[in-house]
Structures are given as C-alpha cells and as structure tokens.
Amino acid sequence: MEKLGNKKLRFIPFRKQDVVEMCVQSIPDKTADKFRKFSKMLESIYHFEFHKVSENLKDEYAKYDPDSDTRTIDSFNKTSPPGDNRFVESLEALLEKANYERITEADLNLALCESSVFKIRLEVDFEDFDEVLLFCRGEHQREETFFRLWRWLPKTIKFTNYERVVVYLKFKQQLSKEAESLGTCVPGASLLKLFQNVPQADLEMLFPNTQVKMRLLDKLLIGIPALISGAVVLTTKMTASLILLGTLIGFWFGFHQKPVVLDKTALLILLAGVGAFGGYLWKQFNNFKNRKLTFMQSLTQNLYFKNLDNNAGVIFRLVNEAEEEECKEALLAYYFLLIEEKPLSIKQLDQKIENWFLLSWHCELDFEIDDAIDKLVKLELVEKISEQYQAIKLEQALSKMDSKWDNYFNYS
Q1: How many angstroms separate the CA atoms of 273 and 254, rounded?
Q2: Which regions of 301-406 does DSSP assign to beta strands (E)?
Q3: N or C: which end of the chain has fewer CB within 10 A?
Q4: How far is CA 369 from CA 2, 38, 307, 352, 387, in A?
Q5: Sequence-separated (6 or more) residues with CB below 8 Å from residue 189
Q6: DSSP alpha helices (H): ranges in 239-263?
Q7: Rounded to whole angstroms, how far apart are CA atoms 7 and 136?
Q8: DSSP labels for 56-80?
Q9: Cβ within 8 Å of residue 315, ≥6 positions away
Q10: For 319-349, how does the pLDDT look when each residue is reduced to its tens digit (9 = 90+)?
Q11: Residue 109: which residues within 8 A CB-CB, separation 6 or more?
Q12: Would you give the distance in Å from CA 408 to the centre of its chain?
C-alpha cells in the first residue's frame, strides 16, 4: 500500500490516462466515450493554462540559468531589484500544484545527523549558500539488504525514502576555499536540480559542495593495519638501520665516546632503512587515497542514477507534473459527483474518492478535495446547493469547455 511515512500521499501515483480508464470501468460504454472526450477537453484546457505558467517561469529563471546558450539584450531585459524573489515564489507555487512538500530545516538536520545508507560520511558547508530550498514527493519506508564482511553477513535496514526531491540553491558571492577548489560552485550562481529515490539520511549528497569524510570505522580499518604493518617493518627491515642511527645519535649527544664509522656498509644500511620507511609511508598514503576514491566513486555512481534533470529542464518537468496533478484532481472530483447524481458535501466527496483508491486500487491518499472543488467551480462544471455540490450533465460540461476553449482566442 502506498503511504507517506505515517501520513497519506497527496500525490496521485497513477498516470492521467490510467485514472480516466479506472473511472470508466463502472459506467456504460456510451457514457464512457463522452467522459473520455470530457477528459481530453479538460486536459487541453489545463495544458494551455500551464503553458502560460511555463513561459512566465522561463522568463523569470532566464537570468539565473547557468546553462543558457542564448544571448541577452540589456535594453529588452529589466534588471530586477535586489532581493527580488519572484522566481522562488513562482517555483514554490508550481511545486504546490505538483503536490510536492517542503523539506523543513528539522528534516534536513535529522538527515545530517543520521548515518548514510551508503556507508559514507558526507559534510556540507551551508555557509556557501544564500538560499537553500528542498521539496519532496512520495515519501515512504523502504528496506534494503547490504552485506558486511566480504558479503558473508547480510544486514537489512529500514529507511525513509523520497521518490522525488527538488533542490534550489543560490551561492553567495564569496565562497569558502573548499567550495572554490571543487570547480562546481560558481559565486552568485543558482542551481535547480531534480533527483529520484533519495534516502532521507543522504540528502547532503545532493549538494554540489559536499565533502566526503572518513568515518571512525574507516579510520580504524586503515589505522590498525597501518600500525601492525609499521611494527613489522620496524622489527624486520629497519632493525639494523635503527641500531646504527641510535648509535650515531648517542655519539653526537655524548652518551658514549666510541666513534661510529660511516663506511660503505653503514651507508647502505641507512639507505635501506630510509627506503623501507619511505615505501611504508607511500603504501599507507595510497591506502588512504584509494579508500577515499572508492567513496567518491560510490557517491558519483549514486548521483548519476538519481539525477533526473537540471536547471531549466526541471521547470519543464515540474510544469508537466503540476498539469497532470491538477487535471487528475478535477477529473476525479467531477466523476464522483457525476455518478452520484445527487449533491454531496466536500467531506462526503473526499471520503468517497479516498475510499475508492483504498479499496479498489490499494492506495491510501490524502486527496486535495478543496483544491479540486475550486477548479470545478472556476470551470463552472458544478453547481453549489446550500453547502453541497452537484456536477452538471456531461453534455452541458462538454459545451462549457468548448466555449471556454473558443474564448481563449477571441480577439474581436
């Protein structure tokens, strides 16, 4: 059963066309054909309405888009005043229509404190950002089985997973040295990204200035073998060199009077000791470097498969998703008022739709009934009788939408 953690889903996890076919299963074929025509006309109206939303967002984002390949003409573009947040406000409104929810600061702090699902330690310097916004959709509990000790011991863990995460970041004009060295952080730039299947505990991997750090366990896995191998090197390959070096130091500091002769043999012993110690240090450095590269590769591979879109491309995806959600909500509300053939209160209609999804499609939803009714009222597809609503007939609804479509292009 689809659920949002301990809450219900606002997002309707079915395609618009599937929702139409789910609805018409229980009505006569003649009525079903009319309802499909109704859905097509409703879809066209919302597509046209959201085209305007898309164009406005494109215009507002143009000055922030780091991937733009078009030229700007200053005389055609008015400079926005400092602190102008029109794009952010428009983006938040679009995400609300697409049924995304804000990831709060408390949620983000919880993610930063939790252990990574991918067993790597990540750190983010939030001082590099002027603005950080995260939104999610489709939160649910997942289970994954990982293997420890060379795949001998399986371990199953439960974690909160987000189906979709939108990240909006705006860098400060002055960045930290670590962020500047990464090459992916540009002072004053804005980034808009969309990811899929993100564990809540790994939200920090979505930031461009994320630094991979060693966990205590990783430090022990490197440090303990290093100490043991160091002891072996000292006792087997450097004993003669250490004795000779100790004798030299003792003579130089006056601990004994017997001079030490640095002949060819003594120099070879010293060089052998230095070579053994240098080789030991080089090996430990490579062990540390290779382990960190392994973590970086794990992070890169995960991001490669989780990244869905970037910058302006995210806007087009979100507009399409918002259009789908708005259309599905209006379709469902109209359908259930239509088949009931009597007025229903908002609460009764909400209950019917949610029960239908639960019993027929095993999906627990928190249906956006107020929003759906508002859309039907705006389209004049329902009549309000006291505190209840009743759908107008299909033929009348088709005529209303046909008239609305014609009036979009009425320039007389």
Answers
A1: 24
A2: 307-310, 344-345, 382-385, 388-391
A3: C
A4: 19, 20, 32, 11, 14
A5: 64, 66, 170, 171
A6: 239-252
A7: 14
A8: HHHHHHTTT-TT--S---GGGSPPP
A9: 54, 57, 58, 61, 91, 94, 192
A10: 999 999 999 999 999 999 999 878 999 999 9
A11: none
A12: 37
